[in-house]
Specification:
This protein is of the alpha/beta class. The chain folds into 2 domains: about 10-410, no CATH class; about 420-520, no CATH class. It has helices spanning about 5-25, 25-55, 60-70, 85-90, 95-100, 105-120, 125-135, 140-150, 150-160, 170-180, 185-195, 200-215, 230-235, 245-270, 285-295, 300-305, 310-320, 335-345, 350-375, 385-400, 420-425, 445, 460-470, 490-500; strands spanning about 80, 85, 375, 380, 435-440, 450-455, 475-480, 505-510, 515-520. The radius of gyration is 26 Å and the shape is globular. The termini are far apart. About 45% of the residues are buried. Mean pLDDT is about 85; it is low at about 215-225 and about 235-240.
Length: about 525
């Protein structure tokens, strides 16, 4: 190495040490993660609002928006888009406190603000975890929160309409942080918040409680293994040992994961376990039937789990953090059973919704993997700077490759064009009380009404699609870009138009990409 290069290297090292010394003060250490969270929040919110402004939101946003609109008006969270009670599917009881906000605020921007804030505030418990529980130096902790800030799963969840499960991400990170510090009341509060976002997260809380019980700070007798004798000693010492507390709280979470689906959600669906529809190949008669179905046919479960698509999901989740969680898997394992079951299901939103739950444990494990790979210097863990830089660089590379807000997706080009203006003009003609059937990207704009259905244009015949679309509504709003099978064929578009006219429908608006039809003049009013 030349003298000039050596000189520059020494200067960078001194600058790095001075920077870390400034952050290592208590005041900066407390304020720094909040400043980063605020910056991440601003970026996420701008991206989410830009996507909504250009009418890219779809069915998921409309479904939750219609449900929370009903709750804000004092009704049950029913959705005609879902065909039933919103709570019956996932047990997202957090819809009730959210409804208090949207009672006075516009629904779509409010939901996007809440979601972006939840994803961004995950930086804070992650920083606390790295600094207070793993004792990492500032540079290593900064690399971790940078990797989180550009993590593809976080950005994709932010741009996937609105899902209440995203609000569980900071709660789960907070639960790990408080649990490792034996602060059980905040831990219970974080677990309760996560359970209110989705009832089956009780299984995650259960395994997290078991992982915390194995922690040396919580229960020394459980650190070396899981033998029956140790388990009996643990149970015997419940009254005198704080180590049993996370196990008890985990068992309460498990109980909720059983009680809510079997009693509350099934009751809301008139006895039909709709929450199991995506697991029908394993069991559709309750949670016990599902578990027994997986155990009875493990080869089917494994074959559904090891598909190419699921392998890609695993790469997207683990590769941006250099697969470090596999080096310290204790806090990765609590989410593994939950993730495996959902990846083996028929759900089409596994990558977006379920991976955001897994994200909390990916980064918790990454923190402790860095701790394990470093060495104690004074009182902090020093990690090789090459590993820290590799983590930050790899996270940035995979952001560019996989995130929906990647520069290759051109988020700066998310502006309204002629098609979006046509949609706004067309939908402005529909009264707020009328029943409507509309294309997916129109649904969020129409969700604040009692009766709304999705217009299915996936069939090969425009005539049959038109016949199905005319049932039970007074208006039909068609976006031709959402009909890929026949929307580009002018003959099929004319068939759709002719079929509706033969049934008594009138064209209320027509443009290059948008059609609006009304049945007569008074139907549905």
């Amino acid at each position: 190495m030349s003298a000039g290069a050596r000189n520059w290297k020494q200067r960078l090292e001194r600058a790095s040490l001075r920077w870390q010394a400034r952050i290592d003060t208590r005041g900066v250490d407390n304020a720094f993660p909040w400043a980063v969270a605020l910056l991440v929040f601003a970026v996420l919110l701008i991206l989410a609002l830009s996507r909504a402004y250009t009418l890219q939101a779809g069915l998921d946003m409309a479904l939750f928006k219609q449900s929370v609109w009903h709750v804000s008006r004092g009704f049950r969270p029913e959705s005609t888009l879902l065909g039933g009670n919103y709570l019956a599917e996932s047990g997202a009881y957090i819809i009730y406190p959210i409804s208090l906000l949207v009672r006075w605020l516009p629904i779509t921007p409010t939901l996007l603000v809440i979601q972006a804030a939840a994803l961004a505030v995950g930086v804070v418990p992650l920083w606390r975890l790295a600094r207070s529980r793993a004792d990492l130096k500032a540079a290593s902790a900064t690399a971790v929160i940078f990797a989180y800030s550009v993590y593809a799963a976080v950005h994709n969840a932010n741009l996937a309409d609105f899902h209440p499960e995203t609000l569980a991400l900071p709660a789960l990170l907070g639960a790990v942080y408080f649990g490792l510090g034996q602060r059980w009341f905040p831990f219970a509060a974080m677990a309760l918040l996560a359970l209110s976002c989705r009832s089956d997260l009780g299984w995650v809380v259960l395994f997290l409680g078991l992982a915390l019980a194995r922690n040396k700070r919580s229960h020394p007798s459980l650190t070396s293994g899981w033998s029956p004798a140790q388990l009996r000693r643990s149970i015997k010492g419940v009254s005198s040992s704080w180590g049993a507390v996370p196990v008890m709280l985990g068992l309460l979470g498990c109980a909720w994961a059983i009680i809510s689906p079997e009693l509350i959600q099934r009751g809301l669906a008139d006895g039909n376990p709709v929450y199991l529809e995506q697991f029908s190949r394993f069991g559709d008669d309750g949670t016990g039937d599902l578990i027994w179905g997986i155990l009875r046919r493990p080869h089917v479960f494994v074959s559904e789990l090891i598909t190419e698509e699921n392998f890609r999901i695993a790469v997207i989740l683990l590769a941006p953090v250099l697969i470090l969680p596999l080096l310290a898997p204790r806090f990765l394992l609590p989410a593994v059973p939950y993730m495996f079951v959902h990846l083996a299901s028929d759900a089409d939103d596994g990558l977006v919704v379920q991976s955001v739950i897994f994200t909390a444990f990916v980064f918790a494990s990454t923190v402790f993997a860095l701790q394990r790979s470093g060495s104690v210097l004074v009182r902090r863990v020093w990690v090789n700077r090459r590993l820290v830089l590799a983590l930050a660089l790899t996270a940035a590379i995979f952001f560019v490759r996989d995130a929906d807000s990647s520069p290759y997706r051109g988020p700066w080009d998310w502006t309204r064009g002629s098609r979006e203006e046509e949609i706004l003009v067309a939908l402005d003609q529909i009264p707020a009380t009328d029943a409507v059937r509309a294309s997916p990207q129109m649904l969020p704009l129409l969700a604040e009404r009692n009766v709304l259905y999705e217009l299915d244009t996936s069939g090969e015949s425009a005539r049959l699609d038109a016949q199905r679309a005319s049932e039970g509504v007074a208006w039909i709003a068609l976006d031709l870009s959402s009909a890929p099978v026949w929307g580009s064929d002018s003959i099929e578009v004319e068939r759709f138009d002719t079929t509706l006219r033969q049934q008594g429908w009138e064209r209320a608006f027509s443009a290059e990409q948008v059609r609006l039809y009304q049945y007569g003049t008074l139907r549905g009013r």
